[in-house]
Every structure is written in C-alpha cells, then in structure tokens.
Amino acid sequence: MDLFKIMQQAQQMQGKLQQMQEELGKRSVTGTAGGGLVTVEADGRGAVRRVRIEPSVVQGGDVELLEDLVAAAVTDAQQKAAELAQAEMGALTGGMNLPFKLPFM
C-alpha cells in the first residue's frame, strides 16, 4: 500500500474520531446509587452535567453515606459513558480490534 493512501486514510479516521467525540458530548448517560437516591447525569465522554440527591439522604445527616453514594453514582455514569464510547468506536472501526487504546476511551 502506498504511503499517500495510508496518510489519507489516517486523516479520514481522525476526522471521524473528532466527529464521534463531538457526538458523544451531545449524548447523555445516567448513573445511580442507593436505589436512585443519588443520580448523576453525564455526557457521553463522562463529564458530569448534573447531580440529583433525594432530600431524604440529606435529612439523615449521614455525610459519609452521601459522599459514598455520590462517588458511586459518578463512577456508574462514567462507566456507562465509557461503554457508549466503546460501542461508538466499534461502529466506527467496523468492529475491528485496534492494537492500542485511544486516548479518550
């Protein structure tokens, strides 16, 4: 395969990756903990957009429990975002396994 063709394909892939990142930023995932007591909404890249906490958790006064629930909900949302990104990458690469991990995954 000639070098020009390889470079052209790499540029096309880079453009598609950039477009995929923009699309992931528009998507939304939700992570929960404590049976829905804490809900975290994140974009498809894992950036947290919103945290919702049921008032009953705050009224209990157990700050340590609340901290654990928030951390668990954020982790859940980020895991779902990673799975979404991986699914999108699989669609982009046609399911072929790349020999390396991309920096945003």
Topology:
Blueprint: H1 3-26, E1 28-33, E2 38-43, E3 48-53, H2 55-59, H3 63-92
Antiparallel strand pairs: 1-2, 2-3
Question: Cα-atom Rg, whole angstroms?
Answer: 19 Å
Nearest-integer average pLDDT: 85
What is the second-level CATH architecture of the domain at 28-92?
Answer: 2-Layer Sandwich
> Outline, from the CA principal axes?
rod-shaped
CATH class of the domain at 28-92: Alpha Beta
Cross-sheet strand order for the largest sheet = 1-2-3
Q: Which spans of ≥5 residues are poorly predicted at pLDDT below 50?
A: none
Q: What is the CATH topology assignment of the domain at 28-92?
A: Ybab, Chain: A
Biggest beta sheet attributes: 3 strands, antiparallel
Mind telling me the CATH superfamily name of the domain at 28-92?
Nucleoid-associated protein YbaB-like domain
* Share of helical residues: 55-70%
Estimate the strand proportion.
15-25%
The oligomeric state is single chain
Order of helices and strands: HEEEHH
Q: What's the tally of helices?
A: 3
